[in-house]
């Protein structure tokens, strides 16, 4: 996602360059691809929540565990998911 964001910011910079501007159709195509990528990530998050899974190929589970003494009785750990 970081690379995608950087490409989008580069596209924005190219669009604003008055000496050598990017074609509008090309910029629209970049924005459309970015929109589809974001939409697919939203669907993936919804699937993870609905299925109760620990992650997916795109969004890996963070393997760090919270120490047991900080948790209530019967709970052995907490898993946090982060988009990379």
Short description:
By secondary structure, the protein is mainly alpha-helical.
Outline the structure in words:
The chain has 84 residues and is mainly alpha-helical. The chain has one domain (2-81). The chain contains 2 helices and 2 strands; from the N terminus they run H-H-E-E. It has helices spanning 2-16, 24-51, and strands at residues 61-62, 80-81. Helix 1 (2-16) packs antiparallel against helix 2. The longest helix has 28 residues, at 24-51. The protein is elongated, with a radius of gyration of 19 Å.
Number of E strands: 2
Could you give the order of the helices and strands?
HHEE
Strand content: under 5%
Helix percentage: 40-55%
* 3D shape: elongated
Q: Strands of the largest sheet, in order across it?
A: 1-2
Q: How are the secondary structure elements laid out?
A:
Layout: H1 2-16, H2 24-51, E1 61-62, E2 80-81
Antiparallel strand pairs: 1-2
Helix pairs in contact: 1-2
Short descriptors:
mainly alpha, two-stranded antiparallel ribbon, elongated
